[in-house]
Every structure is written in structure tokens, then in C-alpha cells.
């Protein structure tokens, strides 16, 4: 296996007209003397998170929204960027409330993932149970509002089916939660 050693300079570009995103060009040297260049997305050290949110009656709270990469509407678990210095759990609870209007009764960390080999972001995934609508409702950001992002309640079976069949953007979260989701579905969770 080749050893990759980071070499400088690292180049950071900003892309996008309205909603800016960082492109980070990283270079690595290998023990065979070659230099490898990789273009990655988002600023280094970025953090984001999402919650598989289950209502008291066992429905899954999802976001249904247009995704420009695949150029189609997809299901997402509620989530988004975690602010600098913000605890990941606090950020995910905030995102859940802002996007859907729901608040969890209980929240449990499922795990973390890099989500994609070319993203400089750690994703924190949680299972949020006993979710209830909050009196303040949703608080969408401008982009979500303008694009018509919708809250849709679906069954656990539908969530798993969406994850298996390329209809959602967070299949890793569903895999992390799979055993717990089956326990909830069969009424055997604690």
C-alpha cells in the first residue's frame, strides 16, 4: 500500500454565485516520488449532521427536496451544517427543528462518516425518537424555502426502501440505524 504524505500548497477556491461553496485542492506525495492532486468540496474541518427522526406513532420525518447533482427530487433526513464551536447534537436538534418543526424526546448518536471520499466534512448521524411538532414550526433558510423543500412522514419500510433504491441522500445513516429501526418497527426497542 502506498504511503500518502500531504504537501503544500493547498489551494482554496470559492464557487457559486449565490450559495458559496469551497473547493479545496490538496496535493499528496507518495513513496514512489509521484504527486497526486485531489479536488475536494467544503472547507477543511467542516461538520454537518442529520437525524433519523421518528414520531411517537412510528413515522419517519423526512425532507423531500430537489437535488441538483442527480437532478431530481430525493428524500433526505433532516440535517445540515454544524456551526463552528457548536456541539454536534445541539446542531442536529437545531437543524431538525428548523427544517421540519419537530423536536426529539430522545436523541442517540449513531456514528460519524465522511459520507463521500471528496468531502472535507465529518457527518454526525443521530436517531431521534418520540419526536413531536414544536409550536414555533419550521424556520427554513432562504435556499430551502425558495426550492420548496417539503416535510414528508413515511414508514420505516419506506425509509429503508428509499435508502436501498437511490431515492435518498443519506443511506449511510439508515445503515447505521438499521437494527434500531427494526427494533422500533417491531416494538422491541428500549
In short:
By secondary structure, the protein is of the alpha+beta class. It contains 4 helices and 10 strands; from the N terminus they run E-E-E-E-E-E-H-E-E-E-H-E-H-H.
Radius of gyration: 18 Å
Mean pLDDT: 94
Largest sheet: 10 strands, mixed
What's the name of the CATH homologous superfamily of the largest domain? Nucleoside Triphosphate Pyrophosphohydrolase
Q: Can you identify the CATH class of the largest domain?
A: Alpha Beta
Distance between the termini: 44 Å
Description:
With 190 residues, the chain is an alpha+beta fold. It folds into 2 domains: 4-42, no CATH class; 45-185, Nucleoside Triphosphate Pyrophosphohydrolase (Alpha-Beta Complex). The chain is 23% helix and 47% strand. The chain is built from 4 helices and 10 strands, in the order ββββββαβββαβαα. Strands 1, 2, 3, 4, 5, 6, 7, 8, 9 and 10 form a 10-stranded mixed β-sheet that branches. A hairpin with a 4-residue loop joins strand 3 and strand 4. Helix 3 (156-164) packs antiparallel against helix 4. The longest helix is centred in the C-terminal third of the chain and has 15 residues, at 171-185. The mean pLDDT is 94.
Amino acid at each position: 500500500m502506498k504511503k500518502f504524505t500531504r504537501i503544500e500548497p493547498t489551494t482554496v477556491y470559492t464557487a457559486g454565485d449565490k450559495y458559496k461553496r469551497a473547493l479545496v485542492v490538496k496535493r499528496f506525495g507518495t513513496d514512489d516520488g509521484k504527486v497526486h492532486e485531489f479536488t475536494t468540496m467544503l472547507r477543511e474541518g467542516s461538520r454537518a449532521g442529520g437525524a433519523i427522526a421518528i414520531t411517537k406513532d412510528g413515522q419517519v420525518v423526512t425532507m423531500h427536496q430537489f437535488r441538483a447533482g442527480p437532478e431530481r427530487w430525493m428524500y433526505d433526513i433532516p440535517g445540515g451544517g454544524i456551526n463552528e464551536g457548536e456541539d454536534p447534537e445541539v446542531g442536529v436538534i437545531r437543524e431538525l427543528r428548523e427544517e421540519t418543526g419537530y423536536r426529539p424526546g430522545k436523541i442517540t448518536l449513531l456514528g460519524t462518516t465522511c459520507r463521500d471520499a471528496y468531502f472535507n466534512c465529518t457527518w454526525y448521524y443521530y436517531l431521534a425518537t418520540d419526536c413531536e411538532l414544536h409550536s414555533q414550526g419550521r424556520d427554513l433558510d432562504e435556499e430551502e424555502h425558495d426550492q420548496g423543500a417539503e416535510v414528508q412522514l413515511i414508514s420505516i419500510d419506506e425509509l429503508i426502501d428509499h435508502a436501498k433504491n437511490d431515492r435518498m441522500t443519506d443511506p449511510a445513516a439508515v445503515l447505521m440505524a438499521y437494527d434500531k429501526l427494526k427494533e422500533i418497527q417491531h416494538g422491541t426497542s428500549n
